[in-house]
Fold this sequence. Notes:
It is built from three helices and 15 strands. 15% of the residues lie in helices and 46% in strands. A six-stranded mixed beta sheet has the order 3-2-1-6-5-4. The chain has two domains: 6-83, duf1285 like domain (duf1285 like fold, Roll); 88-180, duf1285 protein fold (Roll), CATH 2.30.270. The radius of gyration is 18 Å and the shape is elongated. It has 182 residues and is α+β, with helices and mostly antiparallel strands. It has helices spanning 6-15, 53-61, 143-151; strands at 29-37, 43-45, 48-49, 63-66, 69-73, 78-83, 88-96, 103-108, 113-115, 122-125, 128-134, 137-141, 154-158, 161-168, 171-177.
Amino acid sequence: MVENTPMLEAVQRESRKGPPPVHLWNPPYCGEMDMRIARDGTWFHEGTPIGRAPLVRLFASILKLEEGRFYLVTPVEKLGITVEDAPFIAVDFTASGEGPAQTITFTTNVEDQVALGPDHPLRMQDGAPYLMVRRGLEARVDRKSFYRLMEIGAVETANGEEWFGIQSQGTFFPVIRAAELT
Length: 182
C-alpha cells in the first residue's frame, strides 16, 4: 500500500486541475523510490503490485523521462523509479476511415487515448512495436493489438523500398520489408 506522502498529496491536488505540466517542472532530485513498472505494465511499490487503477493513473500522470531515466515529479520533488521496458502498454485500438484518411487510436493500460500519427509515431524495435504517448514516454503495443493491427496493414513504397506497414493520419509507418513477409 502506498502511504499518503507529501508527493502523493501534491499530485492529487494537481490532478484535479487537468493533466499536470510535468514538462515544466524541474524540482530537485530527492533520491530513488522503490517503485517499478514491470514489462507487462504492472506497477509495483516496495515489491507489491499497486492494485488500485486510479492510483496507477495518478502516478502515470506525473511520470517524466529525463536523459534516459524515469522519474515521478511534482513541483517540489523528483524521485527516480525503475521501468523495465516501456512505461505503458497499448492494450487496444480503434480504426476509422480508410487509406490516408484512416486514423488509428490506441488506448493504453492507464487509459490514455493516443492517435497514431506524426505527433505519436509507431516504431519497431527487435520485432516489437512501440507508440509514442507523450513527452518521450512510449507504450509497447500488446500482442493481440499488434496482430489486429497487422490485419489492416498494407504494402507501400517507402524510401524506394516496399514495406508492409500501417497508415494513420496520412502517415505510413513501416513495420517489415515486404520481401520478408512469408
